[in-house]
Amino acid sequence: MQHLNITFIGGGNMAEALISGLIHSGHKASKICVSDIKETRLDELNQQYAIRTELSNITAITNTDVLLLAVKPQQMDVVLAGIADYLAENMTIISIAAGLGMVRLQRYLNADKVGLVRVMPNTPALVGEGMSVLFSDADDMHKQRAEYVLATSGETAWVDEEKLLHAVTAVSGSGPAYFFLLAEVMQATGESLGLPKALAAKLAAQTAVGSGKMLVESGRNAADLRAQVTSPGGTTQAALDEMYECGLPRAIRSGVTAAAKRSKDLAI
Ligand SMILES: NC(=O)c1ccc[n+]([C@@H]2O[C@H](COP(=O)([O-])OP(=O)(O)OC[C@H]3O[C@@H](n4cnc5c(N)ncnc54)[C@H](OP(=O)(O)O)[C@@H]3O)[C@@H](O)[C@H]2O)c1
């Protein structure tokens, strides 16, 4: 896969996360191109990663094998209309735009000619720990190319129905914010109990890192791990009893469900 020419349209945060992942995995900078409407942003990306940059989307996609669309959903129509006549046969086109469905993409892109893949990534991709969920009806070559690009910035998984991306958005797309809220409240409470601000922040952050690693590496599920650290009558038990009493699990369930509903409502 390292021979592929990969172009990003839109050089924002998510594009940078994926570019950084590709470079760190050994993909040659000379095989990566990014286009953006802001010259200053292109200069930054060129200085940081030594990749090719273009102000013109059409010039950027010349000789591209994989095109990653990384502009905001509301910017996508302009981008697609501008490049639709310049796509090479068999190009793999990956869209990470939230809520922008295949039907909308196909309005501009001929799915018989190119391979379309939709992806819902999340921001931990910025530190190489992303969770990207992919959906595509295209053939295996396109799926493998998309998997290759996304796997350089974290874990990947596939869904076989596009509508499941709403649930994915609710769990992993918006999910980092739920963990940040938990850390924020833990830190603030630690401070109100007398801890210095920096120490309270460190305790919340490192507890999140350690717990996340245990979830991924221990081979045990979340409920088991929670039971393991909850001695009957102990401090953790006291905390969890109070959290259940205050309705925390119900609040999380209705929050995640609200995110899925919002994703459906916003879908275009
Ligand atoms: N961030 C997340 O947590 C997250 C998670 C999952 C999916 N996504 C999806 O990822 C996509 C990118 O998000 P982001 O946060 O990286 O956005 P972003 O930082 O706004 O990056 C988009 C970049 O594209 C530029 N742009 C606008 N119009 C353009 C055009 N016609 N041609 C070329 N470049 C153009 C923008 O310039 P201006 O700033 O001047 O407009 C900006 O630099 C979005 O569709 C979003 O839905 C994001």
Briefly, what is this?
It contains 12 helices and 8 strands. With about 270 residues, it is of the alpha/beta class. The two termini are about 30 Å apart.
Name some characteristics of this structure.
binds NADP nicotinamide-adenine-dinucleotide phosphate, alpha/beta, Rossmann fold, 2 domains, 13% strand, ProC C-terminal domain-like fold, eight-stranded mixed β-sheet, 268 residues, single chain
Write up what this structure looks like.
The chain has 268 residues and is of the alpha/beta class. The protein has two domains: 6-166, Rossmann fold; 173-266, Orthogonal Bundle (ProC C-terminal domain-like fold). It is 51% helix and 13% strand. It contains twelve helices and eight strands. The chain starts with 5 loop residues before the first strand and ends with a helix. The model has no long low-confidence stretch (mean pLDDT 95). NADP nicotinamide-adenine-dinucleotide phosphate is lined by residues 9-15, 35-38, 41, 57, 70-73, 75, 78-79, 96-98, 120-123, 173.
